[in-house]
Each structure stands twice: as structure tokens, then as C-alpha cells.
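**Backbone geometry record:**
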Amino acid sequence: MESLRLLVLVAELGSLGRAAERLRIAQPSASRRLSTLERALGLVLVDRTRRGSRLTASGQIVAGHARRVLDEVDALLTRSDALRNRREAELRVAASLTIAEYLLPAWISELRSRRPELYIGLQVTNSEHVPALIESGDADVGFVEGPHLAHVMSTRQVAEDRLVVVADPGHRWARRRQPLSARELSSTPLVLRERGSGTRQTLDRALHLAGHGRARALLELGSTAAVRGAVIAGTGPAVLSELAVRGDITEGRLVGIEVAGVDLTRALRAVWPVGRRLVGPAAELVAVAGEGSRHQRARRTPERDDGAR
């Protein structure tokens, strides 16, 4: 590419020496570049005389093509700079409902405090649909709750969540002294999130691993808030993220029910296309999410009593 630029400058300036000076290279080096280009093309491009350098007829034709090539390259570089600057100033995120409602606001706030010029767009859907938004280019990075991905994605765990069984205070389970069994949980109709949600996937997988099939639906609803409201209204018990019901349990609107023999913990993961390196604001947001999870775990860990033995 630099040899073409040199040839165009020789045509414009009429001197190999001035062309070399413009490119800030030594004249012998410029002469070698032109010779290499002539050998590669099998053409004599420049006549070198005591009065200067003059393009041959072939050289003038090649220089004309070279100008167009260089103009296209310059346009490409300008457009690439614009795209890079846009990428650095914009972040498009897709996230499952629970993560979007209870975790992402804090992550986004932290990232915006570090990069106040950054525009962040968020699409909220269930975990099953997040990878499709990334593959289509509608999102740069996604966050999901479910144990399964319909698409092959690069993933990184950023947090951990736990599902809890909840019922209204008047439900018979609220008076239990013994934990529920996996069989009781699987055989009782529940207020459930829709199929494809991370909460539903996690519950079905946990019951399957415990040897009791899938959850039975009393009612299927499309959001955590709707399920929570139905349980508070006395419709029936449900299994929801601890993030969503912690305050309700503390304030007595819901009762958390212990379950034996079922692992209801789940990993919350960032996802992005396989083969693509996570860079820029997307990488920063994933790092912020991981930092938030570590701080949350640290707050939950009780301080060690050095006097204890």
C-alpha cells in the first residue's frame, strides 16, 4: 500500500526525493520500494533522470488506479474509526427478566459512573430468547439465568442466585414444620413462569435431577412480578428467585418454605457469540457484574471471631 502511495506522490511532485521526504523515508528506501513494485507488476513505472522522475505511460495508468485504491482505503479507515467510536459510546444489552429487574440496574449505574458518556440500551426478555438477540446483532452482550442455552454461546458466570418456594401466609404449607419433599413439590400445581424462562428451566431441571419429572402448572404467567402478585393474592404457591421475594418474606407478605432433596441454586451468566472477543463497554459491564457478585458474597459471609477457638 505504501508503494502505491509513493508512486502517486512521484506523479504529483515530479521528484522521487520530494516524494520520499513527504513520506518521511530515505530516498534509497523509496527507490527500493518502487523497484519492488515494478518487479511485482512486471512494468517500468518511473523514468529516473537528472532533472527528476517522470512516470512512464504504464506508470500513469497504474498511478490512476492507485489513487482510486488509496481513496477507497482512506474511506474504509474513516468509516472504521466512526464505527469504533460508536461502539465505544454505545452498548446494547439483552437480559432475562429477573436479572434485568433486580441486578442490572446496579451494574448499569456503576458502569455509567465510570463512563458517563455511554449510551446503554436494554432489551428485556426471557433467557431462551437472549442468545437470538445477540446472534442477530441486536445486542452486544446478554445475561441469562437458565441452565440451558438453545444456541452455542461463549459464557461467563457473573453471579449466583437461589430459587425459593413461597406461599401466602394462609396457605397450608406456611404452617409446616418439616421441609417439603421433592415429590410434594413436583406433584403440587404451582404458579409458574412461562416455558423458556430461566426460573422455569432451573426448577424443571432440579426436579428432573431429583427424579420427579417437571413442575405442574396451576397458572403460567409471563413475569416474576405477576407470579409474585398471584402468590400474595392466595392463588397458590410458586418458586421464584430469592432476589424477587426477599423483601416480601421479611415483611410477612410471603412465607419461604424449605425443600429437601432439591438443589435450587443457579448460575447467572453473561453470554456473547462464540469466536468473538468481548471488548469495550460490553467487557466492562461483565467485569462490573462479576465485581458486584463478589461484593454481595462478601457481605453475606459472617465476620470471623478471632476469639473463638
